[in-house]
Design a protein that fits this description.
216 residues; 7-stranded parallel sheet; alpha/beta; TIM Barrel; 8 helices; 45% helix
């Protein structure tokens, strides 16, 4: 299992980073992204802490690797690009943007602004527009199939447009607590339920491999 969207108590999760890694390891994870919510008030102190933690863990762990990242959340769209750049400079290898989910009041224009910035994943992009999916496909930015309650309501819409335009997909948990972590079997059921067939679900594994090569 590869999961590139999780949270610790450095933002609104319930676990410290070490426990999150241990619980993910027990679930069979091989690659984990720690992407705590940040804005301009927290980016400067969260990112260095997560970077240091990941360096320590990766130096002693063989069965799981951990990527330091951020989730830029509920920002005015015009701030997404400069903060993504700032996060990279601070050492974040994985940039996720909190997309326009239908269950939260995310600012309109977030999806487009995110896709025009230097990011890796647009999380739970809600009823994303076709022209935005085209941008994601052209730039190689991954669109998220979400395992999280509420955000998952538009998985079918996202998958349908991603298939139409050739955009890359990744399944993430957006885990905030231990029970949010899933197994490979659960992940397969979620992507099939979102509209992928068995062959397309296998292709998603190739996306995982490409993502792993991007970070290590």
């Amino acid at each position: 299992m590869i999961d590139l969207h999780t949270h610790t108590f450095l933002s609104d999760g319930v676990l410290c980073p070490a426990e999150l890694v241990q619980r993910a390891k027990e679930k069979g994870y091989s690659l984990l992204g720690i992407t705590d919510h940040v804005d301009s008030t927290t980016l400067d102190w969260i990112v260095p802490k997560v970077v240091k933690f990941c360096e320590e863990i990766n130096s002693v762990e063989d069965s799981i690797k951990v990527i330091p990242g951020v989730e830029l959340t509920h920002l005015p769209p015009s701030l997404i690009k400069p903060l993504a750049h700032q996060a990279r400079k601070k050492g974040a290898k994985l940039i996720v943007v909190h997309g326009e989910t239908i269950v939260e009041p995310v600012p309109a224009g977030t999806n487009k602004a995110a896709l025009e910035a230097d990011i890796d994943i647009l999380a739970h992009p809600g009823l994303i527009k076709e022209e935005e999916v085209e941008i994601a496909a052209r730039k190689g930015i991954y669109l998220e199939i979400s395992a999280r309650k509420g955000h998952c309501l538009t998985n079918g819409w996202v998958v349908g447009l991603a298939k139409k335009y050739g955009a890359k997909l990744v399944i993430n948990t957006d885990a905030h607590s231990p029970e949010d972590l899933i197994t490979d079997i659960q992940a397969e059921k979620i992507v099939l339920g979102a509209g992928l067939n068995k062959m397309e679900a296998k292709c998603l594994v190739e996306n995982y491999k490409n993502l792993k090569e991007r970070f290590f």
